[in-house]
Each structure stands twice: as C-alpha cells, then as structure tokens.
Amino acid sequence: MYGTYDIPLNIESEGISLSIEQRGDAIVYRRQLGEERAEKLLLGGGRGSIVINPVEPLNLPRDLTPYLYLDFQRPAALAPKSSSTVFVTFPVEIGVFLKDNGEIETLDIFTLARQKYTLYGDPRNGMLCRYWSTPVGTEPPRPERLREGVMELKLVNATGTWIEVTKAVLSAYGMKLYYSDGLVAMRADMEVTGATSANTDFRDIPLEQHMRKSLELYTARKLVVLFPKFTMTDGL
C-alpha cells in the first residue's frame, strides 16, 4: 500500500478500501476501514500525485498529545556506564497526501492499531501519552507493517549503578520513519541520566538499506519544531 501513485487510484488491502478519482478540476477521495468511512472533495486540486506512507502515530482519534509511551512487557536492566541496543514495536498510523505543484495536502489519516492513552507521571499532573505495550528483545521482530513498526532503541546508562528500564516516552516531533515493502521502522536513543530520569531522541537513519523516508506529517503541516528531544523525569 505504501508508495506514490497517480490519479485515479483504487486499493484493496487488509480490510482497507481506498479510492481517488478526478472529476474535472475536482478530486474525490474515499476510504473505508471496517465500519469507519472517510470522504473528501478537493476543488481545483490540479492533477497531482498521491503519497501513502506511515506517519507519526499520535494523530488519532484526534491530535491529543505529541508523546508516545512505550510500556515494556519485560524490564531491561542496564549495567553501570554501559550501552545496549534493543528492539521494540510501535503503533502505525497511515497518512494519505496529495502532492500538487510542490504543495502537500493531508487527505486522511487512519490506523489498524488499537488506540489507547495513559498518563506519564503524577495522576493529577501527569502528561497524556499515546500508550503502546511492546515486547523487548535483542533481535528485530517482524510485525504486520500496516499495524506495527519496529524501533531500534539504543539504551545508554550514564550512571554508576545498575538501572532497570520499564518504559520509554518519546516526542513525535523528532520521529524519522522509514518504510519498505515489508517493514516500517525508526531508530531512537534513550540516555539514562538518573534513577528516574532519561533523555530520548531519534536518529535520521533507516533501519535497513533501500528503505524510503516517510513524509513527516509535522513538515506537511508546516510546523517549526525547536525541541524534538524529550526528558523523562517521572520514572523509568
């Protein structure tokens, strides 16, 4: 499903039905996923191309938070002054864009992944985050690419004691997603700076060769991001 297409377009894949047609100077977009339907009419849209790619998984059911909370299904213990790389999963959201004369219009965002939210930190003053429970391992899994992606997470323990990590909170503003025919992936770093604190950030490097970089939704919205890193202060 991922890629760049000409109009008209009809796709049927894994329960997703998507069509785009040109009607004079107008473009008609339709999408069905289960009982969920989306439809959009663009007037004077020209004859651009359609881009379908994974986007930052923090847009649904609406733009509630830019933070993703990865809950490890088993803890990872880090030796003092050491680093290690693990692989986790994350939910995938799919963006459909119209590219026309250098301009980008978001037509639709949808997902096959379960949507759940939680608080990071104090129940009264905590930070709302998109929640995702993930296995943790030293080898990359191969999940369904329309539902889940793979994150290579480099864990660095900058302290002088053993540290147990049970979660990671990351900001969507720094996410750099890549995709191929069989995989959606990104790379991130988590530097543990204390017993309850860490810094998280992303690397703009594909996990595998020949992967294509996703159109960043925040770039498409023309937002300027000054602080893509995130500092965890309420527990690991």
Short overview:
The chain is an all-beta fold and 236 residues long. It has one helix and 19 strands.
Structural account:
The chain is mainly β. The chain has one domain. It has one helix and 19 strands. It has one helix at residues 217-220, and strands at residues 3-5, 9-13, 16-23, 26-33, 36-43, 49-55, 67-78, 82-91, 93-100, 103-111, 117-120, 127-134, 148-157, 163-171, 178-179, 184-192, 198-203, 212-213, 230-232. The strands form four sheets. Strands 8, 13, 15, 16, 17, 18 and 19 form a seven-stranded mixed β-sheet that branches. A four-stranded antiparallel β-sheet has the order 1-6-9-10, with no helix packed on it. The chain starts with a strand and ends with a strand. The relative contact order is 0.19. The mean pLDDT is 90.
Reconstruct the topology from this structure:
Elements: E1 3-5, E2 9-13, E3 16-23, E4 26-33, E5 36-43, E6 49-55, E7 67-78, E8 82-91, E9 93-100, E10 103-111, E11 117-120, E12 127-134, E13 148-157, E14 163-171, E15 178-179, E16 184-192, E17 198-203, E18 212-213, H1 217-220, E19 230-232
Parallel strand pairs: 7-12, 13-16
Antiparallel strand pairs: 1-6, 2-3, 3-4, 4-5, 6-9, 7-14, 8-13, 9-10, 11-12, 15-16, 15-18, 16-17, 17-19
Q: Total domains, how many?
A: 1
**Helical element count?**
1
- The oligomeric state of the chains shown is single chain
Q: Provide the succession of SSEs.
A: EEEEEEEEEEEEEEEEEEHE
Which labels suit this protein?
single chain; seven-stranded mixed β-sheet; mainly beta; 19 strands; 1 helix; 236 residues; four-stranded antiparallel β-sheet
